[in-house]
Fold this sequence. Notes:
By secondary structure, this protein is α+β, with helices and mostly antiparallel strands. The protein is built from three helices and eleven strands.
Amino acid sequence: MxxxxxxxxxxxxxxxxxMSARAQVIDFETIPGSGPSxxxxxxxxxxxxxxxxxxxxxxxxxxxxxxxxxxxAFQGYNLLPDQPAPGTNAGEYFLTDDGVVSGxxxxxxxxxxxxxxxxxxxxxxxxxxxEFTVQARNAVDDVIGTVVLPPNNSLDGSATHxxxxxxxxxxxSIRIVFTGAGGGVGLAFxxxxxxxxxxxxxxxxxxxxxxxxxLKRRGRRH
Length: 222
């Protein structure tokens, strides 16, 4: 392989690494400091590693739910308790509000220690007359973006995706609130992701690397 092409490839890989260094996904399959367990309280475990905390709007904290009995979030695929449909990529654990399927679930609040440009995730088993609304909020909790998730009655335990991408680090928190109707409702949230705009220093390093390679290549030609 031409040495210049090899160096350019390395530089591209380095740049991609720098640009994705602040991207993260929380799937609740691993919990910092301990293993996951059904009913485990989730609040600040991801703060040190990812700068993210979880809470319920009226106080308290959400808990982990594990696929299968007992039913703590929803009746899902094949009428099985807490069972995501095939292909949802939900893993064995997801987040629920209080571990009880009853009235409307508590609004879930996700706060970021540092603002991010994008955020996304999935909510499982939105069906019947159910509906969830996801709000992106700024530093003073003003809503800057809204996604409404309607029911999917074609497949029990299905995953409904949501996401925001503002192109600038303006998201300070996410609020997930039940806005539908019906009883016996639970929240099942998973695969939370955030993505921050690459820092200027990283972009400068990438640009400097390409400039150096170009100058070196041009000098060899002459």
